[in-house]
Design brief:
The chain has helices at 25-40, 45-50, 125-130; strands at 4-9, 53-54, 57-64, 73-84, 87-96, 102-111, 113-114. It is of the alpha+beta class. The strands form two sheets. Strands 1-4-5-6-3 form a five-stranded antiparallel sheet, covered by helices on one side. It has a two-stranded antiparallel ribbon with strand order 2-7.
Amino acid sequence: MKKVVTEYRVPYADTDQMGVVYYGNYMAYFERARNELMRACGYTYRECEAEGFMLPVLHAEADYRSPAKYDDLLEISAWVQLQKGIRLEIACEVRRKGEEKVLVSGFTRHAFVSTRDFRPCPPPQRFLETLK
C-alpha cells in the first residue's frame, strides 16, 4: 500500500491558549490521513462499512516533537506499517508543508470487526488486495 500525503491548514479552533495545536487534535489529523489513505487505495471506509466491516481504534500513540501553529499548512502522511490477521497499524507523520522536520509522528492500531455483532473477523478480501 502506498504512502498518502494530505494537506491541512490549521484553523484557529485547533489551537490552545498557548497558540499551538492542541495535542488531542493530532488524533483527528491521523484520522483524516487514514481516510484519505483508504480512498487513495480505492477502498473507502464507507465501502468497508457497507460490506459489514468496521475498524475501531485499539491503541493510539503520538510523539510530539515540535508544535504546529495557527495557519500552518501541514502535510499529514499515512501508510500501513503492519497488517497481520485482523490487526492493522496505520503510521502517520505531520510536517509543515515544504519542511523535512517531523512535528508529530505516531500510529493507530485497529482490528477488523463485524458491523453485525462487533466481534473480530478476518479483513475483507478487497482490503487485502489493496495491500498488494
